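Before going further, learn to read the protein records used in this course. The integers have meaning only within a learned vocabulary of local backbone shapes. To see the layout at work, look at the sequence and tokens printed below.
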Amino acid sequence: MSTTTTIPTSTNMTKIITKTIGLDLIIGKPSAQRTIKANRFRHTQGNVDPDSLSVSKKLLNSKEFKDINTIDGKMGGYLRKVALPSFFRRGVYLLPIALIDNVDAVITDYRSTREEAIGTFLAAYPALIEEDRTKLGPEFNSEDYPDVSILKSAFYISARYVSLETPDKLEDVNASIFKREKERVSQMWDSATDNIRDLLRYSFQELLDKMVVALRPAEDGEKKRFRTSTANNLLEFMSTFDPRNITNDEELSALVTKCKEILGAGNPDLLRRDKDLKEQTYTALTEVKAQVDAMAIVRPRRKIKLEEDSNAC
């Protein structure tokens, strides 16, 4: 399902909206905590002000429920890797259009995996209630545990794609408002454009630094362990770089291309086993790192702050 959001255009906005689309993803699940009235607890040296104390109890603290949280966490982690910085609220991701097929396939697989985990949790639910009855003792309250059908409905996923288009109506209604909003949104998109460029530069620098450190020969002559995950993270970044490079950062693109040529098909296991290849790769990547370090790289923000007192996540 897709919806359309219309906002005034700027040069940078036009550049972005032709290459991106928004994903509005809402993940629902029941709360596994309940508040306990603080006035039921007394300090050993005297009474405690209930307004100064917050106490809660954990419900259904089980492997089955944690598995669902893990699956949700992996989905969020994946989206944060492929998404670009934006001024959208939490849960709305700015995605390169070129990656939509891959993202949609991941979401489809996520739904299926999550449904299976939810089924496992619901099957164990009656037994988990009895476990809580023992663990919580006098703090157990049967009203904290809804019927299975109600509990199941608390788990859901809502995903829709949000496209951005240029408005025609606002200028006809009020030219002054249109001009004001156009200038405001133009500044927002200029900030977003800078942040997208900075994010890609900073991320590449960070991953390349870790790769060079991992490949650097040990000074004491001892054997140094090489983690394939370090190489895989860099390879994963480079595999999605082109569609994410919507600001056309040619300087960074040239360095990423050079890094791709050095790593070739990318076989982390071979790097770990072949000492000569490891040393050659280290020397070549060190040269690329020097060029990256010479660039003006600013640590980016994941979220663009719209107003000084904004409460947006």
Notes: The CA atoms of residues 215 and 282 lie 5 Å apart. The radius of gyration is 25 Å. The first helix runs from residue 11 to 17. Strands lie at 2-6, 20-28, 33-36, 55-58, 92-96, 156-165.
